[in-house]
């Protein structure tokens, strides 16, 4: 038996319930992971609310965690009991003390990376990798606009993009978050609550516009972001924190300068194990080399998962939000 957070119907954070569940022995190709830290991400809120439907209810929540391998099933190669492993993959169910998973979805965690960082930032790190290295390969001289620059993904994006030689512009909600973004590689923080970020981007770029916009906010920023792009620039919509972006006619992209628009999903990029390990290796190497120093913000015990969701959706967090399975209620 193990404690786990599940929902019986979709809705608000109050739907998250801690329950005792049976954890089976691992079958062929599977491992049993005794978990130590679980990441809390916006995709979890989307699963809870029903925006991203779950296969059935009741169901677990969460797609990211770190732990120690407790048992392995038949046919598993390259994974041994006692090893520290992380994952960032469906199906949801990561908010749990223990879990059985396919061995080929696990990622070895370097000794230098603590559990809370591996369990709380691997999804964000892989997301940053696909955005900066796969969706739009960032090079020295590029100029980027990153929304939610003080958030979990935003901080990693800013640091990594700064290391790659890009000029980083970021939007934030208040002065404290502007300071956080600046400390993590954002060269030009913009307070969207006080300033029109389109005008600020135009001034910063001398009217040229940015090469790429990375937008996890959605409805509140999408249309204005298109106006921040240079001709042939790329709009990367990868989240819906403020609601889904509006529908768009392809002709509008032509009118605004033959723009590109993409909506990447991480799990499509890492479905192949070689790509999964390539992304994880790039991220963990950046961590161990000091290129990225991800901030673990708030830590909650498993019983406070609903509060973690409430704070995340209210944009009251910075850095990674983690369920610490060693924390007391």
From TrEMBL:
InterPro entries given in the database record: ADH-like_C, ADH-like_N, ER, GroES-like_sf, NAD(P)-bd_dom_sf, QOR-like
GO CC entries: cytosol
Catalytic activity: 2 a quinone + NADPH + H(+) = 2 a 1,4-benzosemiquinone + NADP(+)
SUPFAM superfamilies cross-referenced by the UniProt entry: GroES-like, NAD(P)-binding Rossmann-fold domains
Start and end residues of each Enoyl reductase (ER) domain: 11-323
One family name in Pfam for this protein: ADH_N
E.C. number: 1.6.5.5
GO molecular function, one term: NADPH binding
CDD domains in alphabetical order: QOR2
Domain of life assignment: Bacteria
Broad EC category: oxidoreductase
Keywords of this entry: NADP, Oxidoreductase
Signal sequence interval, chain numbering: none
Family per similarity comment: Belongs to the zinc-containing alcohol dehydrogenase family. Quinone oxidoreductase subfamily.
Listed name of the protein: NADPH:quinone reductase
Highest classification ranks of the organism: Bacteria, Pseudomonadati, Pseudomonadota, Gammaproteobacteria, Chromatiales
